[in-house]
Amino acid sequence: MVEDNNFTIAEAPENHQGKWIDKLVGDPTNQELHDRLDREQAAYALVEANCPDIVPITTEVTGRPERGIRIELLTALGKVTLPEILTVVDRLQDVPVTDDLPSRDKSFYIPDMRSRLDYLERLPITAGLTAREARRTMRRAQHHQPAITPFDTTFVHTDVQKRHFGRSRQNPVGKLKIFDLDQAHFGNELEDYAWASVRHPQYAKAVQEHLRAKFNDNPQKQANLGEAMDFFYDYFLVKAIYDRSHQAHRNAFEVVAKAAGRAMLYSPILRDTAEKIAFVAAD
Prior knowledge:
Elements: E1 2-4, E2 7-15, E3 18-24, H1 31-50, E4 58-60, E5 68-72, E6 74-75, H2 82-92, H3 109-122, H4 131-144, E7 153-156, E8 165-168, E9 177-178, E10 185-188, H5 191-199, H6 204-214, H7 219-246, H8 252-266, H9 268-282
Antiparallel strand pairs: 1-2, 2-3, 3-5, 4-5, 6-8, 7-10, 8-9
């Protein structure tokens, strides 16, 4: 057994449908884990009902004392191209908005960002952000925030990145599947695209091109796309730095990732440089 974001991950008995893993609430007193599991089960049910080919098969855990969700074990994890990622995100947005998941409107993001900046500002200068950095970031976000208004509320995975994609072991050349839905919610339709651009900076410009084509027949979205994406870049960079500080693993990757995020937050020029470096490194 191993831990992943505080869930316990264990192999499940193999059957005629292939191999499975169990995602378990190891600590039955941890209400946050129960809530996240409830959210993940609801998210899988919604996607399975509307786009069943882009998520792994899931079922209830049986034969264990712990509560959890049993998930089809995928193969070829992370072996995915950007067009495939974008196709899956586009498909997720076909899931209808319901009351089964938390929902964010445009008023959610600034207070959430401010609370994270307040936390980072209280940390030592080497671990968080300076007061000047925090104020500058918030002013920029408040300037760009109105641009997100024209964009719709859709299903949001929340953590779109390469390692959350794989393929069925029964059909390893078949359609791509996305997993790890315990943070799924309904929110602004740009969220997943922006987070993918922050997580994989080498894709940022291609993601923008995809969105311009997607919104080609909507002049209002076209006119606001640049500023809206700038808003979400800042929002997710702050979230990434917060996560690295608040849930620190204290390894070399965490230190480098937080430093890179801080540099990208400080300057759009450095952000462009990071995109170029990431593109070369990933090639």
